[in-house]
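In response to the reviewer comment on reproducibility (Comment 2.3), we provide here a single inverse folding case reported in full, input and output, so that an independent group could reproduce the run without further information from us. The C-alpha cells appear first.
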C-alpha cells in the first residue's frame, strides 16, 4: 500500500479545486432549518428576517408623568400656567404605558405642580413630546437581518421585539473527525502511564474545537489503528452519516499512510499533497458526495491546514464567504531562510516598539504545538522567495487581537527560566499586559535593541579581560546613556548530565572524549561565549568536540536533549537541571541583566515590569525555588 510520490499542488490551486467541487455538491441540497429565535445566537440566517410587528406597536409614554393633549398646553407660561383637570383633561401615566385615546404628549412629573384635582403646566408641549411612537424602534415589515448574517445577541432581541419567535438558519454542517494511528492512546489511558512509541491523542479535540468555533457541529470518532480496511471503513461510515469528514494523520508517504489510497478506492481523490510548509501531506477527496479532508498528524500542520482548507469548506456549507483574518504590517526581527518552491507559514510573536509592529519568529517545527499557543500571528513566505531579512516589512495574519499585541512587552535576547516566572507574575498583577520573550542570544538581542525592535534584552556577555558582564558590549554598540542595565539575577552555569552522571564527566576537559556527544548553544549567546572562553583557557580545539556545531536556543532545550539521550552533556543553567531531574557540574556564576532603552524607563509597561522585579517578594521566592539563582541584586542598576 506504499504510495507513489506525486507532484504536489499549489495551495491556491488546491483550494480552488476543493471549493469548486464543494459548490457542485451543495447545488440543490437544502442546508437550512427553522429554530426558535431564543436559541439562534451565533447561527447564520438562511433567509432575510422581517419584523412581524412594529416596536413599540402602540404610542407609549417615555416618562413618568401626565398624558395631555399638546393643544391644551399652547398658552402655558410661567405667569399663566395651563390648568388641567386630572381624570378629564389629563391622566397620570408611567413609563411604557400606552397613551390614552386622543392624548398625544406627556409632561414629566417633575415639570407639573399639583393643585387639588388639577395640575399646572408652565410651558407648552410639542406633539408626542416625551413619548415613544409606534414604530420608533422597528417598523412592521422592516428587515431585521439579511441573508447569511451571523446572529448576534442584539439581533435576537430585535427579532423577539418585533414578534419573530422562529428563524430560518443554515444547518450546522456535521463534521466527523477521525484520529488515526496505532501509536495513539487517549488522555485517559495515558493516566495509567505512557511508554514509547505511544502518543497522547489530542488533535481530534483541537480540530473538533476549531469546527465548533467555525459554526459546524463536530463528532469525534474513536482512534482508528493503522490498518487499510479499518481506515477505509471509518471514512465510508463517516461519509454516510455526516456532511464533512476530517481524517487526521495517515496522509504522508510512509508505509502506514493509507488515507489517499482509501479515498481513491471509495471515491475521488482531488489533492494528494500541497506545496506548503508545514502541511505538505494534506489530502482532499470526495466520498459518497461528501468532502473528505486528510489533515496531517503534526499539530501545527493540522492547525494550519484546517485554517487554509477545512474552514473555507465549512463556510461554503454555511453560505458564508471566507473572511481572511486581520492583517498588519510588521518588521521582522531576525533573518528567516525558507526553501524555494513552497509557501511557508511561520508563527510569530508581535509587539509594538516605537510605533512599529515587530514580528519575532517562534520555533518552526510542524510538531511544536506550543508555537501556535504562543503565537500572535502567522506570516507567509511565498514559494518564489528564499526567505526574509531582518528589518524587512512583512504582512502578518493575526491570531490575537491588536489590543493584546499593543500591550505586549517584547524581550529579545538570551534565554533564562526566570523570564517565564516574570511573565506569569506580570499577568497576575497586570492582566492587561503580556510579556513575550524570543530567544536569539545576548548579541542578537542587543542588535534588536539597536534596531528599536524590542523593549528590552536579556544578556550575559562576559568581557574576558575585566570579568565584567555586559558593560563592554553596551558601551561598544550604544551611545552613552542610551541603555540602562538592570540586574535580574546571578545564576550558576555548568554542564548538564544524566542522573548519576553515568559517563563520569568531570568538567570541560572531558568534552573531547570520543565517547561523549555534546549539544551547544547558538552563536551569539552568552552561554556559547562562556563555553568558548573556557575552551580557550584550556587550549581545547572546539572542533574536536562531537556535537559542537549542533545548536539549541534555550537552556531547557539543552536539558531536554540530555534527558532524552540526544546528547551526553551540554551547558545550561542549574535551574534547567533541577527542572528535568539532571545532575549538574558547575562551571561559572554569572550575572544576567536586562538591557532597557533609557527613554522608555518611565513608560507604564516598563514601570509595571520593574515594580515586580524590585518589589514583588513572591516573584523572588518563585525564582529561588527554581534553584541556582541569587536574587540579592535583583533590580539593581549597573554602572555603565
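Designed residues, in position order:
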Amino acid at each position: 500500500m506504499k504510495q507513489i510520490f506525486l507532484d504536489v499542488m499549489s495551495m491556491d490551486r488546491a483550494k480552488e479545486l476543493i471549493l469548486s467541487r464543494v459548490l457542485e455538491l451543495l447545488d440543490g441540497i437544502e442546508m437550512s432549518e427553522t429554530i426558535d429565535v431564543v436559541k439562534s445566537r451565533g447561527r447564520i440566517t438562511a433567509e432575510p428576517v422581517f419584523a412581524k410587528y412594529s416596536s413599540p406597536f402602540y404610542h407609549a409614554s417615555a416618562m413618568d408623568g401626565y398624558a395631555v393633549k399638546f393643544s391644551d398646553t399652547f398658552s402655558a407660561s410661567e405667569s399663566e400656567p395651563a390648568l388641567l383637570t386630572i381624570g378629564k383633561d389629563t391622566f397620570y401615566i408611567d413609563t411604557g404605558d400606552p397613551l390614552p385615546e386622543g392624548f398625544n404628549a406627556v409632561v414629566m412629573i417633575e415639570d407639573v405642580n399639583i393643585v387639588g384635582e388639577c395640575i399646572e403646566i408652565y410651558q407648552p408641549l410639542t406633539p408626542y413630546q416625551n413619548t415613544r411612537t409606534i414604530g420608533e424602534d422597528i417598523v412592521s415589515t422592516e428587515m431585521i437581518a439579511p441573508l447569511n448574517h451571523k446572529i448576534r445577541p442584539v439581533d435576537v432581541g430585535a427579532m423577539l421585539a418585533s414578534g419573530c419567535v422562529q428563524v430560518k438558519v443554515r444547518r450546522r454542517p456535521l463534521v466527523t473527525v477521525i484520529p488515526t494511528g496505532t501509536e495513539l492512546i487517549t488522555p485517559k489511558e495515558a493516566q495509567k502511564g505512557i511508554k514509547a512509541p505511544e502518543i497522547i491523542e489530542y488533535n481530534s479535540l483541537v480540530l473538533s474545537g476549531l469546527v465548533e468555533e467555525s459554526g459546524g457541529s463536530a463528532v469525534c470518532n474513536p482512534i482508528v489503528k493503522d490498518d487499510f480496511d479499518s481506515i477505509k471503513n471509518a471514512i465510508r461510515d463517516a461519509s454516510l452519516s455526516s456532511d464533512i469528514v476530517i481524517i487526521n494523520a495517515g496522509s504522508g508517504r510512509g508505509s502506514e499512510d493509507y488515507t489517499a489510497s482509501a479515498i481513491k478506492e471509495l471515491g475521488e481523490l482531488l489533492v494528494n499533497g500541497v506545496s506548503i510548509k508545514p502541511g505538505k501531506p494534506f489530502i482532499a477527496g470526495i466520498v459518497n458526495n461528501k468532502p473528505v479532508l486528510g489533515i496531517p498528524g503534526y499539530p501545527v500542520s493540522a492547525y494550519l491546514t484546517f485554517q487554509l482548507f477545512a474552514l473555507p469548506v465549512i463556510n461554503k456549507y454555511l453560505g458564508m464567504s471566507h473572511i481572511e483574518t486581520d492583517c498588519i504590517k510588521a518588521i521582522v526581527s531576525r533573518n528567516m531562510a525558507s526553501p524555494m518552491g513552497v509557501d511557508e507559514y511561520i508563527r510569530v510573536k508581535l509587539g509594538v516598539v516605537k510605533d512599529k509592529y515587530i514580528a519575532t519568529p517562534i520555533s518552526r517545527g510542524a510538531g511544536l504545538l506550543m508555537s501556535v499557543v504562543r503565537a500572535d500571528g502567522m506570516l507567509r513566505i511565498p514559494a518564489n522567495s528564499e526567505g526574509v531579512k531582518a528589518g524587512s516589512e512583512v504582512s502578518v495574519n493575526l491570531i490575537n487581537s491588536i489590543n493584546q499585541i499593543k500591550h505586549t512587552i517584547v524581550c529579545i535576547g538570551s534565554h533564562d527560566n526566570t523570564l517565564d516566572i516574570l511573565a506569569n507574575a506580570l499577568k497576575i498583577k497586570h492582566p492587561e499586559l503580556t510579556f513575550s520573550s524570543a530567544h536569539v542570544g545576548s548579541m542578537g538581542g542587543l542588535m534588536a535593541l539597536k534596531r528599536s525592535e524590542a523593549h528590552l534584552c536579556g544578556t550575559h556577555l562576559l568581557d574576558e579581560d575585566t570579568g565584567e558582564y555586559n558593560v563592554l558590549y553596551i558601551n561598544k554598540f550604544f551611545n552613552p546613556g542610551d541603555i540602562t542595565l538592570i540586574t535580574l539575577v546571578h545564576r550558576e552555569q555548568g554542564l548538564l548530565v544524566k542522573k548519576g552522571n553515568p559517563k563520569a564527566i568531570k568538567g570541560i576537559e572531558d568534552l573531547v572524549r570520543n565517547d561523549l556527544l555534546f549539544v551547544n548553544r547558538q552563536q551569539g549567546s552568552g552561554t556559547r561565549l562562556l563555553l568558548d572562553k573556557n575552551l580557550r583557557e584550556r587550549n581545547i580545539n572546539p572542533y574536536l568536540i562531537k556535537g559542537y556545531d549542533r545548536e539549541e536556543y534555550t537552556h531547557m532545550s539543552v536539558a531536554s536533549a540530555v534527558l532524552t539521550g540526544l546528547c551526553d552533556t551540554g551547558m545550561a543553567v542549574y535551574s534547567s537541571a533541577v527542572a528535568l531531574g539532571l545532575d549538574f557540574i558547575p562551571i561559572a556564576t554569572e550575572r544576567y541583566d536586562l538591557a532597557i532603552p533609557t527613554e522608555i524607563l518611565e513608560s507604564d509597561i516598563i514601570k509595571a515590569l520593574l515594580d515586580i522585579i524590585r518589589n514583588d517578594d513572591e516573584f523572588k521566592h518563585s525564582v529561588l525555588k527554581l534553584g541556582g539563582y541569587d536574587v540579592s541584586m535583583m533590580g539593581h542598576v549597573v554602572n555603565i
